[in-house]
Amino acid sequence: METTSPVPADAEMYKGHCPTREILDRIADKWTTLIIGLLAHSGSRRFNELRRAIGGISQKMLTQTLRELERDGLVKRTMYPEIPPRVEYELTALGKTLCGPLSALGQWASAHIGEVRAAQETFDRRTGA
């Protein structure tokens, strides 16, 4: 099967100084992917709702990732002046544009997990891992 890269091999993104890599690093992060996916399906969520829904994420990592997503314009943080204060997170219009591509990656992963696991087992047997 022949595959083609959507980006030429000599593109700036493959070099260490390209700003596009910063965005790709953010989008490819597992916590980012899970947060965006969750917010895409639920609209808005409070911090602790996100933390409970995303298994394995620490409070520190969730805080850091949400802050980075807010800085990048992908997530909006709304604080309500109540007692106790209520803070909710939701995708921005820009963040919503990631839903299609991330959904496609999730579908690919679901469709090919068996092949990936078989390849891993073959590799582990061959290398004694």
Envelope shape: globular
Radius of gyration over all CA atoms, rounded: 18 Å
CATH classification class of the domain at 12-97: Mainly Alpha
The separation of the N and C termini measures 28 Å
Strand order of the largest sheet: 1-3-2
Runs with pLDDT <50, length 5+? none
Number of helices: 6
Quaternary state of this entry equals: single chain
Strand-pairing-aware structural class: mainly alpha
What do we call the CATH homologous superfamily of the domain at 12-97? Winged helix-like DNA-binding domain superfamily/Winged helix DNA-binding domain
DSSP E strands, number: 3
Q: Approximately how much helix is present in the residues?
A: 55-70%
Mean pLDDT: 89
CATH architecture of the domain at 12-97: Orthogonal Bundle
Strand content bin: 5-15%
CATH topology of the domain at 12-97: Arc Repressor Mutant, subunit A
SSE succession: HHEHHEEHH
| Sheet with the most strands, sense and barrel status | 3 strands, antiparallel
Give structural notes.
- By secondary structure, the chain is mainly alpha-helical.
- It has a domain at 12-97: Orthogonal Bundle (Arc Repressor Mutant, subunit A), CATH 1.10.10.
- It has six helices and three strands, in the order H-H-E-H-H-E-E-H-H.
- It has helices at 19-28, 30-42, 47-53, 59-71, 93-96, 99-127; strands at 44-46, 75-80, 86-91.
- A hairpin with a 5-residue loop joins strand 2 and strand 3 (86-91).
- The longest helix is centred in the C-terminal third of the chain and has 29 residues, at 99-127.
Provide a quick synopsis of the model:
This protein is mostly helical.
